[in-house]
Write a structure and sequence with these properties.
354 residues, alpha/beta, Aminopeptidase, 2 domains, six-stranded mixed sheet, three-stranded antiparallel sheet, 16 strands, 22% strand, binds zinc ion
Length: 354
């Protein structure tokens, strides 16, 4: 075979187009840098349920936007309005960060959703380490928000960064939508999705959510969530009547909230086939195909409003302890998960338009 036919063969088969080894070597050689960025993000107490931490949450959104700008994204911070508080006052919601990398109409366009707010955490709750100081113990990175959802968001950002650093064209156009109110019900996001349905979302083919975890030590693709409902209880000056002062409010308000409707995707959809191929390439196993007991309310909103196909592609470990004490993500999941995303973008680019 002469050189011209070899080049032709490589181009026709696409073999030359995916420089996976080079990309993963870059990830390996930048592991400590990626962990350093995660450490900086974990240090921000972006607890969306505590209004006294709202300035930290705003700072977290600024840091996210800045990181996306630094790697060449076209970034916007979308004002989603105010949050009403039980005492009648209101406070600004954290802005939603959107970013765009590439707008080549011949390519697929994916939109990665994530969040950078966290659940509350205090050392005295039973943490073995300081929750807002990323602590590496035997290859596990402990810190509030490590697995839910800061490391997965960073892994996606690093995915784009690695392609760019090596001057390799992104195989698909990539958009980001990163919010700061997920842990308290994604306040303001639904309206924003509706408002941007025909603009930001118009050219999006697929939405990717990495806000979930594996079921076992094997990687997983999540194709359904059950939905949930929960209660808000507001207690004011709740004393036994013997001690209660006359005229004290002494009230208990209980509100039931339907947190999410169930969400279900087709695990045979090309998006999932692409996921299986990416898992096979990085981990050399077949993924678990799972439905979750928890809820990712925004998945259903994305589906209902935009009509786009969605995949949940987790990188967190089954034992990461989301929402509880000693939350962590392992170095392995963080770093190999970044490679999974790198491979996934390539596999999605291979999906034929139909
Ligand atoms: Zn989450």
């Amino acid at each position: 075979m002469n050189c011209i036919s070899l080049v032709c063969l490589l181009l026709c088969t696409g073999v030359s187009s995916f420089r996976f080894e080079e990309l993963t070597q870059y990830v390996n050689s930048h592991e400590e840098e990626f962990i350093k960025t995660l450490r900086q993000w974990i240090a921000v107490e972006s607890d969306s349920s505590d209004v006294t931490k709202r300035s930290d949450l705003h700072r977290m959104m600024d840091m996210t936007a800045e990181k996306l700008r630094l790697i060449g994204g076209s970034v916007e911070m979308v004002d989603v309005g105010m949050q009403s508080l039980p005492n009648g006052s209101s406070i600004a919601l954290p802005k939603v960060v959107t970013a765009e990398f590439g707008s080549d109409p011949s390519k697929r366009t994916v939109c990665v959703y994530g969040h950078v707010d966290v659940q509350p955490a205090k050392k005295e709750d039973g943490w073995a380490t300081e929750p807002y100081e990323l602590t590496d113990i035997d290859g596990n990175l402990y810190g509030r928000g490590a697995s839910d959802n800061k490391a997965p968001v960073l892994a996606w950002i690093h995915t784009v960064e690695v392609y760019k650093a090596l001057n390799i064209d992104l195989p698909v156009n990539v958009k980001f939508i990163i919010e700061g109110m997920e842990e308290t019900g994604s306040n303001g996001l639904d309206d924003m999705i509706v408002a941007q349905k025909d603009t930001f979302f118009s050219d999006v083919d697929y939405i990717i959510i990495s806000d979930c975890v594996w079921l076992s030590k094997r990687p997983a693709l999540t194709y359904g969530t059950r939905g949930n409902c929960y209660f808000f209880a507001e207690v004011t000056d709740y004393l036994h009547s013997v001690f209660a002062k006359r005229n004290s409010p002494n009230k208990l308000n209980v509100t039931m909230v339907i947190g999410a409707k169930p969400w279900l995707a087709d695990p045979k959809h090309p998006l999932y086939e692409a996921g299986k191929a990416a898992v096979k390439r990085v981990f050399d196993v077949e993924p678990d195909l799972i439905r979750e007991g928890g809820t990712i309310p925004i998945a259903r909103s994305f589906q209902d409003v935009t009509g786009k196909s969605i995949i949940m592609l987790p990188i967190g470990g089954f034992d990461d302890g989301l929402h509880s004490q000693n939350e962590k993500i392992s170095r392995y999941n963080y770093i190999e998960g970044t490679k999974l995303f790198i491979a996934y973008l390539h596999e999605v680019s291979q999906i034929k338009k139909y």
